[in-house]
Amino acid sequence: MPVESPEERMVEVLALPAFVDEELLFLYFENKRRSGGGPLVSVEKNGDRAILLFEEAEAAARVLCKGHHVLHNVELSVRKPASKDRCRLLLLLRGINPNTSTEMIELYVENMMGLNMPDYTLYPSPGRDFILIQLSQPLSKDFQNLTARISKRKLDGAEVTLEETEPTDSVLVENLQPSTSPDLLTLYFESERGGNQTVKDVTMLSAGAAKVSFVNYELVAVREAAGQLL
Predict the structure, then answer these.
(1) In angstroms, rounded to a whole number, what is the distance separating the alpha carbons of residues 166 and 91?
(2) pLDDT in tens, 160-205
(3) pLDDT score at 217
(4) Which residues contact 57 (CB under 8 A, 6 or more apart)?
(5) CA–CA separation, 131 vs 151, rounded Å?
(6) How far apart, in whole angstroms, are the C-alpha atoms of residue 2 and residue 16?
(7) Mind listing the domains of the chain with CATH numbers?
(8) Residues 173, 182: contact at Cβ < 8 Å?
(9) pLDDT, tens digit, for every residue of 13-22?
(10) What's the rounded Cα separation, in Å, for the pair 207 and 51?
């Protein structure tokens, strides 16, 4: 029987009310009839989120497939946590001269990181002072050695740095019309034009800005760095 990795046995629970503690989560998600789950190894709660580690990947899969979970009349959202490899799929190249051509950046990335064109996609920021590099597969090179090498090699006269991205489920949407509502933002991002992503929550920060959180992580960092918003 193949050994199941911890990531295969993990589930992330979102939007937890303050009164739901680790003990209550244990009782609910170990109850196969109510949650579809099974025996848990651990529950780690942090604010309104928790990471569940099941003994078996099958139990985690059942919880994710069930989707709809209600605990004390509160609906909980569950999803698969962002993979650790995801950080190695999205990298930031900072400090770029905004006037540097895309071709020069491509040559720099390919030479320094040992990549070919099909291996990556570049997403310039609106100001072109940093580039998000999306890799087609996790980086195989030692990251520390790579960052040290890049820090010693200027790009078009500019000192650049390579950074890993932190997994995020949210984007900041700015320059909104004062009349823009959370419902309108939800409709936009869940439409084909907005990326067909399921919106978890919309928080209006001011008259012209909002924080939009998604159920899944896919393309969130790409969308934010590339400025592909309203």
Answers:
(1) 9
(2) 999 877 666 777 787 888 888 889 998 988 888 877 778 888 888 8
(3) 59
(4) 4, 8, 9
(5) 15
(6) 33
(7) 6-81 (3.30.70.330), 85-164 (3.30.70.330), 170-226 (no CATH)
(8) no
(9) 987 888 889 9
(10) 34
